[in-house]
Write a structure and sequence with these properties.
Blueprint (H helix, E strand, L loop, with lengths): L3 E4 L2 E3 L5 E7 L6 E9 L6 E7 L4 E3 L7 E6 L4 E6 L8 E9 L3 E4 L3 E5 L2
């Protein structure tokens, strides 16, 4: 069992940057996919970015070129660097990990608000 805890959310002006971090209570070596999802107000949760153990990354089109996902298995952390933030990036952001056998882990979420 792995617990995921997000941090780094907050209020930022349009064009600003935030860095989200996800700390795991145990090893993430077996979490072959780590990802960040977000849920905007009144909308469904969506995948923002994912990273596999081998390092391959994927991004939703709306954040391509602005967000960067990274993982450090030794530190048991996954991060999401968010630049050039837009009001439409406002959402609760969730850390996610998937283990073989389709075992899924979720964090509790962290609020990101982009507003002037």
């Amino acid at each position: 069992q792995v617990q995921l805890v997000e941090s780094g959310g907050g209020l930022v002006q349009p064009g600003g940057s935030l860095r989200l971090s996800c700390a795991a209570s145990g090893s993430i070596d077996t979490l072959y996919v780590m990802a960040w999802y977000r849920q905007p107000p009144g909308k469904q949760r969506e995948l923002v970015a994912s990273i596999k153990n081998g390092g391959s990354r994927n991004y939703v089109d709306s954040v391509q070129g602005r967000f960067t996902i990274s993982r450090d298995n030794a530190k048991k952390m996954v991060s999401l660097q968010m630049n050039s933030l837009k009001p439409e990036d406002t959402a609760v952001y969730y850390c996610y990990g998937r283990q073989l056998g389709d075992v899924n882990y979720w964090g509790q979420g962290t609020q990101v608000t982009v507003s002037s």
